[in-house]
Amino acid sequence: MLIERRKPLPAKVGIVSVGHHVYWDQFDGLRDEMLRKSAVLAGKVAGNGVEVVDFGLVDEAQGAYAALPRIRAADLDLLMVDMVTYATSSTFGALIRSLDVPVVMVALQPRSALDYANATTWMQLANDDFCSVPEFAAVAVRMGRPVPEVILGTLEGDAAADAEIAEWCRIAKVYHSLRTARIGLMGHVLEAMLDMHTDPTALTAAFGSHVVLCEPEDIMRHWADPDPAAVAAKEQQILEFFDTPAPVSDPITMKLTQADLNTAARAAVALDGFIAEKNLDGLAYYYEGLPGSETRTVMTNLTVGNSLLQAAGFPMCGEFDIKTCVAMMVMDRLDIGGSFAEFHPIDFDRDAVLVGHDGPHHINIAEGRPAIRSLKKYHGKPGAGASVEFNIKEGPITMLGNTLTADGRFKFVIAEGESLHLPVPPTGNTNTLGRFEPDVRTFLKRWVREAPTHHYALGIGHHAATISKVADVLGIESVVVPTH
């Protein structure tokens, strides 16, 4: 079973084709061939679930300046410059100088090679997609911009090029989500966790997300008078989705009690109402409440509801860690998960380390059916109640830490490893044994050397290269921890 995403993942990708106006009178039909090529690219891009805005063929400086206001007004998440043939960089300079949007050059020629024995100038020009790429790259630098990425290949039957187009469409979805997100921030830092402090204004400056400052009472209003039918339906959903195993070795665990199930379901319903009321796309929070208060009961029993929301596309991050909430959103929008995680004990016998946390988690990336246990106490925090437990899917995994440097800038720390299909402690917490190259000791030392915060987002698959491109698009420093 999977939790369905509640909101679509939108993105708007513009395509502007470039050519050289002198060619059209010289070679009959060449301009029509350029338009055909651009239409093929537009179809490929649209097939990745994004909105395509086609700005047509620009073949001289005047056309570039005329297109610029339309491109700006389109509010794009990505602009693809389709290098359909050679074009002078006057068609590009005005755009790259003035646009504040990620740009990718696409050079997909119709032929895998020219028919040399029968080649014509017309044939060469129809396949001259790469010719202007170096010129455009040089002009980008002279305009004070980074060199755009390049998708290079053939127009048809090129799986590698198609995969790059799909990757950039996913990156566009991440970019759109971050720059339009409303991320709630509630409560305070868990006392003494100095690496958790984040300036909301700095976060908006770096990612575009608006930070919505929330109060625990915003959830308590929805807890106070719940719809009994909604709570019963949520209980049923929880029982259908989660296993409820008997305790094994940990004396603070119990089989899920009816009281804990009801509290978790009622808190989940309150969370749903709160998210809808505030129109949030995610939440970072920590709040204890007074001993014995309803506020403490609710604020310490959000893990199950958080995990359901996380799987539905709303990153929900504990311990007030809004930086990691952003990292979780990046992974979720790439459709690779994004569980809240940290390092737990090292397994020197298996050359691995436990990675996980006590919640919340992206339950769509669980290996098998996730479980819920009742806990008599939450270690290190007040409260008791239902807690989520599962292994991450066996196979490749990626970690994304979002940290702050001494000068207050964000930095992505990225690593790839493998999730092992081995038992983890039955403690009501999510864990998986992660193996990292070249060995666990060396890897952990290298990870620490990059000064990450102690939390990170955990996803499935190897996606360090894609996440590095997300960082480049955002203008954020990133490092991939080496594996050799």
TrEMBL record:
It holds the Pfam family Fucose_iso_C. The lineage of its organism: Bacteria, Bacillati, Actinomycetota, Actinomycetes, Propionibacteriales. Keywords: Arabinose catabolism, Carbohydrate metabolism, Isomerase, Manganese, Metal-binding. It comes from Tessaracoccus rhinocerotis. PANTHER family: L-ARABINOSE ISOMERASE. Residues 378-477 form the L-fucose isomerase C-terminal domain. GO terms for biological process: fucose metabolic process; L-arabinose catabolic process to D-xylulose 5-phosphate. CDD domains: L-fuc_L-ara-isomerases. InterPro entries: Fuc/Ara_isomerase_C, Fuc_isomerase_C, Fucose_isomerase_N/cen_sf, Lara_isomerase. The keyword Glycoprotein does not apply. GO terms for cellular component: cytosol. This is Arabinose isomerase. GO terms for molecular function: L-arabinose isomerase activity; L-fucose isomerase activity; metal ion binding.
